[in-house]
Amino acid sequence: MEKQILNQFINNIPQFVWWKDRNSVFLGCNDNFAHTAGLKNKEQVIGKTDYDLWNRESADFFRKIDAEVMASGQPQLNFEEPLTLKSGETRWLSTSKLPLYNDTQEIIGTLGWYNDITVYKQMQIQIDDHNKTLVEYSFQLEQANRELELANIDLEKFTYAASHDLQQPIRTMKNFAKLLKQRESKKLDDTSKEFLDFIFNSANRMESLVKDVLTYARTGSKELIAESVDINKIVANKLTDLKQITESKAAIIQVNLPDVKIKCYSHLIGLVFYNLINNGIKFNTSSPPIIECNYTEKSDSWIFTIADNGIGVAPAYATKIFEPFKRFVDESFEGSGIGLSICKRVANLHNGDIWMEKNPTGGTIFKFSISKKLK
Ligand code: ADP
């Protein structure tokens, strides 16, 4: 009865089972095993050796393991091995081999079984291939990033040098236009004087344009060190710088900012508040212009808002205004179109962003975020 159960078990499990004598001649197996060898049943396997069933290389390997197991008396469990059939097809196996004992505990051969793990192995090979491709892609990406960084540094250096060197000839132009108008005042008629004023004013505008480009090129070009600062103090300083425009337009500026210290690149954050408040007053025909600075605290960031009651921005330009030199106002509003691109750069350097929303009460709300996790 016991033998019958054992036979049933061996013949019905999904594994491939066999046993051999000390010369590695097959003594028995289950039908699964016989079928893999291309034989009908276990009777056809008995008396054969691995050389009769598989290709030479596989048979040599099986013999070697048999010898090791018999010599050591130690089982070898779950090792992976390829099996090449006589047809040339290769299967992958997870094999276990044990010494086979007789009643007097002498080793009389080996007993083994395997699972066919070909599908799993092929998947693993595919995953390995994909991984290799992925590593290659990420290497290429890194390389491209490095090249881009270098190109950016070059571009920044170029912009810096060009705008820096442009300042001197502009100053000379301004000075000589002024000098000419003063020295030759009597000789010049009104039209000529007006032309000289055009030259002077254009040079003036060019000077501030070049200055702004210089600021843009400088933003983030130096190594930045974040420090914990009182934003109220920074903004108060900037409001002093904005005194002239504030007074000339009788603007009202309301400030409600956090009274805890905030880690940021303080000089750059000052520049953002300066630009946004300045724009809020500049692009404003209400009387009085009202600018409100507020904030919201999130778990991982601060969001600052600068709301105005100004001329507003058409929704079509909502993202374009943050690109350098993009302006959507007529010449009566002075400016170079650089301010908001500086703000965007600064927000990005703080792992944040900047965007605008329509102010429900008229005008625009600018919002920018900065991460709380700056190094
Ligand atoms: P600039 O102020 O020198 O024109 P900016 O980069 O600061 O340059 O702004 C780009 C453009 O965005 C402005 O020319 C204007 O069209 C628009 N803009 C910026 N801020 C405001 C604002 N508060 N209200 C209305 N339009 C604005």
Any overview of this molecule?
It is a single chain. This protein is α+β, with helices and mostly antiparallel strands. The chain has 3 domains: 115 residues, PAS domain (Beta-Lactamase, 2-Layer Sandwich), CATH 3.30.450.20; 100 residues, Helix Hairpins; 152 residues, Histidine kinase-like ATPase, C-terminal domain (Heat Shock Protein 90), CATH 3.30.565. The protein has 10 helices and 12 strands. A 5-stranded antiparallel β-sheet has the order 2-1-5-4-3, with helices on both faces. Strands 7-9-10-12-11 form a 5-stranded mixed β-sheet. A two-stranded antiparallel sheet has the order 6-8. The relative contact order is 0.07. Bound molecules: adenosine-5'-diphosphate (ADP). Adenosine-5'-diphosphate binds next to helix 9 and helix 10.
Characteristic key phrases:
375 residues, alpha+beta, Beta-Lactamase, Helix Hairpins, Heat Shock Protein 90, 3 domains, 5-stranded antiparallel β-sheet, 5-stranded mixed β-sheet, 47% helix, binds adenosine-5'-diphosphate
**Number of continuous helical runs:** 10
Query: What's the end-to-end separation, in Å?
Result: 75 Å
Characterize the main sheet: 5 strands, antiparallel
CATH architecture of the largest domain: 2-Layer Sandwich
Question: Can you tell me the CATH superfamily of the largest domain?
Answer: Histidine kinase-like ATPase, C-terminal domain
> Which percent range fits the helix content?
40-55%
CATH uppermost class of the largest domain: Alpha Beta
In the CATH scheme, what's the topology name of the largest domain?
A: Heat Shock Protein 90
* Amount of beta strand: 15-25%
Rounded to an integer, what's the Rg over CA atoms? Answer: 41 Å
As laid out across the biggest beta sheet, the strand order is 2-1-5-4-3
The average pLDDT is: 91
Number of E strands? 12
Low-pLDDT parts are: none
| Order of helix and strand elements from N to C terminus | HEEHHHEEEHHEHHEEHEEHEE
